[in-house]
């Protein structure tokens, strides 16, 4: 943890220069190629890998079990470990912690202006947000390509494109990459970029922790991708032991990858939660916090508290692999149930880590486009926190058929179904906000409506799954697979798209092309449903997950699903084209407030200055006071940027 | 930069990036795919029995994993290859000769000590026919050749582990081995039928089923049954 | 148009669509919902699915109709009045309270019904762990008798039949303690019989899924996971592994069959005789067969407790085990 | 991408009120962050404790613990005493600092850091002298998990403590000279908040050390 007072130090030192006299040398500031940037990170990461791998071979190649099975996991692990350390050293993430050890306080490192700052370790939350945009899209596209491979294999029940080992490798890699991506897809880009803007803060509480979270997230990508070099891992994203213990060194990439991403999740959540609690602008009481910030707060708390359990589970797995402990091996006093419990104790909160930000985005965007206040604000906030709290008490519903505590099943059935009450609040809020509004069907709004459509199916089938008798048939089948794709992709990814179309004009100052956006939306919405709805039927008809062979009578449905999936992939290419076209090839300058939102983030100058607000705004009323002529502006900017803004349309400034 | 310049740059970079990603993915994912199949179709006249010779070796001695146990097959042309996808004609008798070069142990599940699904439910071990092998006696069972969906399973009796066993494939007939022969009939329905060994023989892996048991091309594969 | 008539329209449309949807589901779709009627629990699980479906459909229609109406009517187009603002638009105590009450009632009743179905149907065919609390009459006694080597079954009586499911990478085999403890690789069952499945694994976690029987139980190494099925119809059923268990997971399936009691008896006695030679080498019937974590050739964990312990001996023994 | 820096390199002129507002948020962050760090560590150790009790009660293959199996007791005692000493000194130093005895804080702090380093050394060295191999039982395995987790926590805690004392040394002037407790300068207030959070965290370390000592060496 980096707890310090950078700005106050500088303030009291009475120097205007950001780097005070007592500053340590800050390499990230140096201009040109001599400073630390992505290039140095790659070089040091590579050197670290080479060193670690050599050291592991030196240490462990004589170990009995390694000599026997011929796969030196210790070398692979040390290689990856030193790769991550080298990567962090190279990017400069460790400069400050090391300097701090000697009591030196670097001043606030203001990164060099220009494009190059996106390739550096930076303390500006807006730059970190943009870095995350690129990062999660990279994850998303890698995972998406693997999904295409899966659907290709499933075109035929018995003729195989890939051999079964490769197929399991692809399935596992797809699942893991997507799950890792989904934990950060909103919190990373939009959370980091927007939370300070939306709470009226000039900075994050721990900007170094924030930047660290991104760079370790990107290291996590390399670690999990490296599994392919080691022959993959056969366990799917759930990594069940003892299959996990049996697997080769690819499993180490999975375990270590989750540990690394876990550190990133913890640090991102830690910083954001602390920021929201402490850095809200004056006057922003808890009943005036924007709903997106509520959802990010709930998510950040889950990230911070649930992820340590995943870290423990991964650590245990690594110990089992590397030093032959037997934590997950029944025959040596361990228990395979231990992994299932630890993993799902983290795993279920994680499911809501992947749902809540979507709810937040929708609740934030819908009032803007219906020109109405958000309906039942308090219920929405309570719903988010309620979901977050309840999500710690439902994990055994993944294990209904496992034989673990079977007599507890009614209890977990109850808690699981109870969680649909706070989830239902989101629908109350959404439907209430639509009621007699004046809806503008812009692209972000369409994505929000699609979320309500998709998540409804995902959520309702969740109730089926939580019912133990029905679970007997649908557990572990394509029904489950379809269910969580409806919630995560149909919910979160659609919400992320809504967020991108909505906020990119703020983040980059450029509008996304509406026509292409509409094409993207309709193809994605239609083909998403055509891909995944048949999977409910496929699952009910008895096809288990992660199989490379299935019953001949299911070929029609599977082919339909596969072809739709290819079209869905093409829809993502359309999105990518729109992104490139509107942001780089033919950029159109965005208006300052294109959607006529009352939100604080739209009231700052465009582009957003380094310190976000010229004057710290004072929040004077609740958010979302649309269609209220005479309502006061959301915030008082004290004569700084945004003064005079903050009410919209027919509203009269008082 | 002009708009067309930006367009060209973006498209060019996109093509390069996608090409690179696909190249890396394919490069990583394809080494495990069967490099073709060993084709026994046409190795004998239609309707006539097909002869197939395979061997099992305790450590293959070459490739990425020289310590791993593996099956090898002799092509109709008489060359030993490291390949476990074998194409067979449908509805045809196959005479199999297995040269077993590995030592054995008691079976985890004695069920695999039974000979099932072969012609007459028997196999022959160095000329002596057997239908059940007690894996707790003698040298135990080294491997099995099992095609679950055809109900075919033959225990491959181990050789004495104290002899100096073959460690580099392909092994020669001079090295200690057991010769197991049996016949079975391929099904009329074409398709890919999974076969594997049911002895947990992966040295140094949990339950013995990792490594060679979990990697395609070592201790399992497909019988690709096609019309002749 | 005033507020009231708009709501009336929506509610009317919703009621009509829901009633039609529910009726169509119940009479047209419902009877075809898997897993069918082959066992008692399959029947009740199908019923349970349909109960949930007719509860869920109105909810789905409510949201869809609302969304549809909103998209068509509450749009930004000429003639549409400005939206309502102020306190009334922000919250309505009645609507919120009503929503919370209704969702809570629906959700809690679903949980209560699910619990009743689960307990009344003896675990609904799901894995109930080594000591099932909701067991059919006589099933536990029969299972204990099997362990004591005293299992019997005959077509005449109504004793439960005990079948052990042994999962291994990558195949299920089955043991019938009532027939001399024989082991087969096919699963055949008599009709109108309470079957007790003792599911266990010899290596990693598998899941025994007899699809049409509505039986699903994880096969864990060293754990006996018991599930029950009361067979009702003759016919073929599918057995699949439902928990990812490695490379050949997708190929880990075979079909089983429910026969008449006499046909089953004939098959079982014949197979018992056929397999007798192999059966005598099998270990006595037990809940679990503790596998050696090291596999056939060893070489992973050091054997036994290494005392005195030295890291060098455990990890770096000079000569690799053969 | 649009450039947000070109216009903003000149930092805005903060008003004193704004500065004070942000500073209070900063102090609040240290407070919240410290507590949240305790929360995270609690979940981390709770999952380890869960593993311990889970394996202990399931006792699979009757291998929860081999007869007479015990981690090196003297090492355990040493680590425990050192960690308790570190925690105690952190709290003592914090209290002395509040009363204005900076030197006491310094001495307590450096002693605490030394104690932490000794604990770290013994915790690592304990792995070398283990009388059992890690996979021999559930107890042995969970013990390995605990040791690795504890090593990471000790490193973190010692690091945190070290940075506070070294900061007190380096920033003596900014901390208000001899009487940092009286200084209302921002660095001094920030520093005091940091020390307070740190000593809270050390309290957590003390509780955890005792609990896990009882679990692994006594029960």
Topology (elements, then pairings):
The complex is a heterotetramer of chains A (654), B (228), C (322) and D (219).
Chain A: H1 6-13, H2 38-60, H3 64-69, H4 73-91, H5 95-101, H6 125-153, H7 164-184, H8 187-199, H9 207-226, H10 243-246, H11 250-278, H12 291-322, H13 336-353, H14 356-370, H15 377-390, H16 409-418, H17 420-434, H18 443-466, H19 468-474, H20 478-508, H21 514-540, H22 555-585, E1 618-619, E2 635-636
Chain B: H1 3-29, E1 38-39, E2 50-57, E3 70-74, E4 80-81, E5 85-89, E6 93-100, E7 123-125, E8 128-130, E9 141-147, E10 152-157, E11 178-185, E12 191-196, E13 220-226
Chain C: H1 3-29, H2 40-73, H3 86-90, H4 93-120, H5 139-147, E1 161-168, E2 171-176, E3 182-184, E4 188-190, E5 194-201, E6 206-210, E7 215-219, E8 225-230, E9 235-241, E10 253-259, H6 261-279, H7 311-315
Parallel strand pairs in C: 1-5, 4-10
Antiparallel strand pairs in C: 1-2, 2-3, 5-8, 6-7, 6-9, 9-10
Can you give a write-up of this model?
- The complex is a heterotetramer of chains A (654), B (228), C (322) and D (219).
- Chain A has 654 residues and is mainly alpha-helical.
- Chain A has helices at residues 6-13, 38-60, 64-69, 73-91, 95-101, 125-153, 164-184, 187-199, 207-226, 243-246, 250-278, 291-322, 336-353, 356-370, 377-390, 409-418, 420-434, 443-466, 468-474, 478-508, 514-540, 555-585, and strands at 618-619, 635-636.
- Chain A has two domains: 45-107, no CATH class; 115-585, Cytochrome C Oxidase, Chain A.
- Chain A contains 22 helices and two strands.
- Chain A starts with 5 loop residues before the first helix and ends in an 18-residue tail after the last strand.
- In chain B, strand 7 (123-125) and strand 8 form a beta hairpin.
- Chain B is globular.
- Chain C is of the alpha+beta class and 322 residues long.
- Chain C folds into two domains: 3-74 and 92-120; 139-279, Cupredoxins -  blue copper proteins (Immunoglobulin-like, Sandwich).
- Chain C contains seven helices and ten strands.
- By secondary structure, chain D is mostly helical.
- Chain D has a single domain, classed as Four Helix Bundle (Hemerythrin (Met), subunit A) (Up-down Bundle).
- Chain D is 74% helix and 0% strand.
- Chain D has helices at residues 16-58, 73-99, 102-128, 138-170, 186-218.
- In chain D, helix 1 runs antiparallel to helix 4, helix 1 (16-58) packs parallel to helix 5 and helix 2 packs antiparallel against helix 5.
- The longest helix of chain D is centred in the first third of the chain and has 43 residues, at 16-58.
- The radius of gyration of chain D is 22 Å and the shape is elongated.
- The N and C termini of chain D lie far apart (61 Å).
- The model of chain D is unreliable at 1-11 (pLDDT under 50).
- The chains are: A mainly alpha (654), B mainly beta (228), C alpha+beta (322), D mainly alpha (219).
- Chains in contact: A-B, A-C, A-D, B-C, C-D.
């Amino acid at each position: 943890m980096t707890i310090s007072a950078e700005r106050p130090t500088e303030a009291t030192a009475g120097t205007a220069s950001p780097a005070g006299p007592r500053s340590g040398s800050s390499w990230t500031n140096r201009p040109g190629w001599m400073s630390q940037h992505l290039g140095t990170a790659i070089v040091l990461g590579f050197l670290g890998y080479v060193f670690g791998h050599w050291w592991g071979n030196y240490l462990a190649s004589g170990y009995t079990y390694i000599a026997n099975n011929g796969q030196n996991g210790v070398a692979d692990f040390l290689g990856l470990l030193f790769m991550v350390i080298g990567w962090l050293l190279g990017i400069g993430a460790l400069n400050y912690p090391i300097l701090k050890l000697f009591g030196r306080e670097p001043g606030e490192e203001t990164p060099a202006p220009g494009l190059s700052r996106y390739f550096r370790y930076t303390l500006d939350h807006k730059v970190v947000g943009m870095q995350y945009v690129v990062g999660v899209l990279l994850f998303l596209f890698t995972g998406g390509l693997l999904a295409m491979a899966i659907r290709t294999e499933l075109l035929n029940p018995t003729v195989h494109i890939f051999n079964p080992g490769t197929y399991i490798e692809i399935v596992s890699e797809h699942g893991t990459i997507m799950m890792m991506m989904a934990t950060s897809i909103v919190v990373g880009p939009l959370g980091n970029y927007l939370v300070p803007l939306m709470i009226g803060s000039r900075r994050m509480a721990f900007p170094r922790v924030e930047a660290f979270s991104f760079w370790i997230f990107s290291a996590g990508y390399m670690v999990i991708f490296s599994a392919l070099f080691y022959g993959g891992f056969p366990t799917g994203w759930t990594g069940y032991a003892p299959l996990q213990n049996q697997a080769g060194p690819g499993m180490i990439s999975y375990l270590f990858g989750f540990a690394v991403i876990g550190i990133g999740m913890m640090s991102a959540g830690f910083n954001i939660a602390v920021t929201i609690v402490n850095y809200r602008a004056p006057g922003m009481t808890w009943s005036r916090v924007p709903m997106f910030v509520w959802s990010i707060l709930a998510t950040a708390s889950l990230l911070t508290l649930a992820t340590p359990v995943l870290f423990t589970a991964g650590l245990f797995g690594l110990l089992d692999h590397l030093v032959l402990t037997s934590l997950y091996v029944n025959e040596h006093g361990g228990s395979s149930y231990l992994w299932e419990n630890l993993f799902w104790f983290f795993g279920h909160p994680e499911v809501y880590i992947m749902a809540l930000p979507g709810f937040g985005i929708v609740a934030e965007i819908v009032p803007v486009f219906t020109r109405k206040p958000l309906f039942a604000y308090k219920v929405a906030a309570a719903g988010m926190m309620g979901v977050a709290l309840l999500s710690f008490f439902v994990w055994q519903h993944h294990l209904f058929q496992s034989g673990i505590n079977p007599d507890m099943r009614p209890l977990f059935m109850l808690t699981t179904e109870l969680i649909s009450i706070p989830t239902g609040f989101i629908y109350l809020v959404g439907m209430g906000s639509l009621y007699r509004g004046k809806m503008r069907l812009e692209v972000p709004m369409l994505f929000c409506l699609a979320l309500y459509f998709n998540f409804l199916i995902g959520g309702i089938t969740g109730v089926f799954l939580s019912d133990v008798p029905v679970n007997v048939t649908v557990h572990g089948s394509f029904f489950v697979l379809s269910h969580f794709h409806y919630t995560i992709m149909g919910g979160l990814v659609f919400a992320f798209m809504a967020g991108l179309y909505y906020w990119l004009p703020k983040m980059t100052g450029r509008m996304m092309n509406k026509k292409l956006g509409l094409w993207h939306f309709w193809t994605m919405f239609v083909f998403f449903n055509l891909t995944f709805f048949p999977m409910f039927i496929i699952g009910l008809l008895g096809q288990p997950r992660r199989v490379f062979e299935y019953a001949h009578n299911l070929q029609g449905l599977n082919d339909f699903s596969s072809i739709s999936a290819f079209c869905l992939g093409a829809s993502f290419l359309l999105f990518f084209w729109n992104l490139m076209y509107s942001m780089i090839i033919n950029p159109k300058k965005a208006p300052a407030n294109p959607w006529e939102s009352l939100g604080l983030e739209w009231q700052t100058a465009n582009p957003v200055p380094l310190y976000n607000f010229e004057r710290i705004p004072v929040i004077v009323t609740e958010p979302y006071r649309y269609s209220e002529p005479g309502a006061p502006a959301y915030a008082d900017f004290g004569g700084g940027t945004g003064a005079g803004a903050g009410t919209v349309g027919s509203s009269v400034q008082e | 930069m002009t708009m067309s310049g930006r367009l060209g740059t973006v498209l060019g970079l996109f093509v390069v990036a996608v090409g690179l990603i696909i190249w890396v993915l394919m490069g990583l994912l394809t080494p495990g795919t069967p490099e073709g199949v060993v084709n026994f179709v046409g190795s004998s006249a239609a309707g006539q029995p097909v002869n197939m010779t395979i061997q099992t070796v305790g450590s293959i001695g070459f490739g990425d994993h020289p310590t791993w146990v593996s099956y090898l097959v002799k092509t109709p042309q008489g060359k030993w290859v490291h390949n476990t996808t074998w194409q067979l004609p449908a509805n045809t008798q196959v005479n199999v000769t297995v040269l077993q070069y590995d030592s054995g142990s008691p079976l985890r599940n004695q069920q695999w000590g039974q000979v099932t699904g072969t012609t007459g439910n028997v196999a022959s071990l160095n000329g002596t026919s057997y239908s059940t092998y007690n894996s707790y006696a003698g040298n135990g069972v080294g491997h099995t050749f099992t095609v679950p969906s055809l109900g075919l399973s033959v225990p491959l009796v181990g050789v004495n582990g104290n002899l100096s066993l073959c460690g580099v494939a392909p092994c020669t007939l001079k090295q200690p081995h057991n010769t197991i022969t049996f016949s079975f009939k391929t099904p009329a329905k074409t398709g890919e039928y999974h076969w594997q060994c049911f002895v947990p023989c992966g040295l140094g892996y949990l339950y013995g089923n990792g490594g060679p048991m979990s990697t395609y091309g070592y201790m399992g594969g497909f019988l690709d049954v096609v019309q002749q | 148009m005033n507020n009231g008539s708009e709501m009336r329209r929506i509610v009317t449309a919703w009621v009509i669509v829901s009633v039609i949807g529910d009726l169509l589901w119940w009479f047209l779709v419902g009877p075809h919902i898997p897993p069918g009627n082959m066992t008692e629990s399959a029947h009740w699980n199908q019923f349970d699915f349909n109960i949930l479906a007719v509860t869920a459909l109105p909810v789905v229609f409510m949201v869809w109709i609302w969304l549809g109406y909103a998209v068509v009517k509450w749009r930004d187009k000429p003639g549409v009045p400005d939206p309502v603002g102020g306190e009334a638009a922000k919250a309505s105590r009645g609507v919120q309270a009503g929503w919370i009450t209704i969702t809570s009632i629906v959700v809690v009743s679903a949980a209560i019904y699910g619990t009743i179905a689960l307990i009344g149907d003896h675990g609904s065919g799901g894995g109930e762990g080594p000591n099932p609390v909701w067991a059919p009459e006589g099933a536990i006694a029969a299972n204990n008798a099997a362990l004591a080597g005293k299992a019997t079954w005959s077509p005449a009586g109504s004793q439960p039949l005990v079948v052990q499911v042994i999962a291994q990478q990558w195949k299920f085999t089955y043991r019938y303690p009532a027939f001399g403890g024989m082991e087969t690789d096919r699963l055949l069952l008599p009709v109108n019989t309470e079957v007790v499945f003792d599911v266990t694994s010899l290596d990693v976690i598998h899941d025994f899924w007899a699809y049409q029987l509505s039986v699903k139980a994880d096969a864990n190494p060293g754990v006996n996971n018991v599930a029950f099925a009361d067979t009702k119809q003759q016919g073929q059923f599918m057995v699949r592994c439902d928990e990812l268990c490695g490379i050949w997971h997708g190929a880990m399936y075979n079909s089983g069959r429910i026969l008449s009691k006499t046909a089953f008896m004939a098959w079982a006695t014949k197979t018992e005789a056929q397999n007798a030679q192999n059966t005598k080498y099998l270990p006595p019937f037990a809940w679990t067969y503790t596998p050696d974590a090291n596999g056939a050739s060893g070489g992973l964990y050091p054997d036994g407790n290494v005392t005195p312990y030295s890291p060098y001996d455990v990890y770096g023994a000079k000569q690799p085990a053969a | 991408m649009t450039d947000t820096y070109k216009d903003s390199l000149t930092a805005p002129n903060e008003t004193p009120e704004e500065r004070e507002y942000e500073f209070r948020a900063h102090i609040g962050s240290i407070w919240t962050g410290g507590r949240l760090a305790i929360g995270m560590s609690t979940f981390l150790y709770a999952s380890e404790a869960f593993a311990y009790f889970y394996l202990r009660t399931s006792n699979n293959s009757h291998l929860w613990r081999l007869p007479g199996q015990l981690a090196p007791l003297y090492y355990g005692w040493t680590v425990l005493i050192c960690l308790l000493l570190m925690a105690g000194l952190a709290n003592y130093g914090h209290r002395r600092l509040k009363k204005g005895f900076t030197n006491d804080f310094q001495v307590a702090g450096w002693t605490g850091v030394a104690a932490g380093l000794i604990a770290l050394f013994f915790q690592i060295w304990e792995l070398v002298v283990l009388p059992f191999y890690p996979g021999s039982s559930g107890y042995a395995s969970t013990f390995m998990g605990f040791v690795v987790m504890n090593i990471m926590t000790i490193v973190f805690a010692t690091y945190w403590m070290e940075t506070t004392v070294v900061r007190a040394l380096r920033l003596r002037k900014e901390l208000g000279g001899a009487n940092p407790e009286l200084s209302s300068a921002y660095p001094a207030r920030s520093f005091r908040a940091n020390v307070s959070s740190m000593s809270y965290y050390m309290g957590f370390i003390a509780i955890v050390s005792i609990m896990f000592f009882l679990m692994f060496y006594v029960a």
